[in-house]
Amino acid sequence: MRLVVRPSLLDGQVAAPKSKSLMQRFIAAATLANGTTIIREPAENDDSLHGIYCARALGADIDFENDDLHLTGNINWPEVPLNVGESGLGMRLYIPIACLFDKGVKIIGEGSLRTRPIDAFENILPALGVNFRSRGGRLPVTVQGPLIGGEATIDGSVSSQFLSGLLMALPLAKNDSTIHVDNLKSIPYVDMTLEVLRSFGIFIQHHDYKTFHIRGNQKYSPADVTVEGDWSGGAALLVAGAIASKTGIKVAGLRGEYTQADKAITGALLFAGAKLMQHPDGLQITAGKLRGFSFDATDCPDLFPVLAALATAGDKPTTLTGIHRLTHKESNRAITIRDEFAKAGIKVELIDDNMIIHPGLPQSAVLDSHNDHRIAMAAALLGLRGGPIAIDNAEAIAKSYPTFFDDLELLGADIRKK
Questions:
Q1: Catalytic: 302?
Q2: pTM over 0.90
Q3: Active-site residue identified among 46, 299, 302, 392
Q4: Residue 159 pLDDT level (bands cut at 50, 70, 90)
Q5: Beta-carbon neighbour count of residue 249 at 10 Å?
């Protein structure tokens, strides 16, 4: 699908989408609990739907009542492969969970997920009692447990999600476990996992995020939880307000019971000169005189695309640090941002671990999302202040924020289907 986004002035209020990161963790934890969990205000996106599919395959009963999701955990060996779709988090949660069974379980995925490495599991799971087979370090994977626990070391530099998956499954192992973690990135996402686990009665100790002690034979308890607004999707709306609003916009639903790494967008926006005002249930953002800034996005790599779009409106080049975190996403985002922004006349340099974005008014161009939801959103942001920008494969937003373009239109964006 090709959509064209034209220069627009935004005004009004929208609600941030619900967090797929929280939703997926809630679904996995609820599946492991004996009893019925209520997930209020559930997220509706492709990654969450695949999480529901995996929960059902593992024996969970799922009903919707008054728009709330009621999930009754009853974990059993799945007779069909677990299809995690294109969800990197889903892959890294359900591979360890599948290791709880003494019969083989196959995990499959779709699209670009089939090219993303899972070497971390291949290196660590055999030490914890698991027979692990993969397609050259990629999906599909077949695992056979049971996961018995023990001691192992994991490299946390590629993704914190490998650790999150282990933290979900190892409390149900027969023995206690000690996991040593080298060079852990995206610590806020690990905090989110630990907070979700506490909501379900699971407790894990750690020492400075370098050593995690996990008591075995714990039991998940059902919970009553609410999916908060997603700071990742909310970040795109906030940047839209910063670069394309006259009187400002309000983004509702952004609160902070659970840690979300992408809340760091607020600091980046302030560095860039935008004006933020806190409201009881969200943020008001008004464009100020935007400037170039420096920001380390190592722990919040999903912000790179929208921050790059924000940087085009500055008064001097912006430097974003941490591009080594962008290689194994839906696309190689550093290269994709550089090449796609170039089509719109925006110069982006990749130097060592830094992305340097030179400001400028985006020129009319056709950009390709590369089936990457965050690239599609960044392309739309370029179109709001320049262009117009046509976006091929715009439907990629369904992965995390299916109503993104609808919400932009509610704020006054000129978006047309071509």
A1: yes
A2: yes
A3: 302
A4: confident
A5: 25
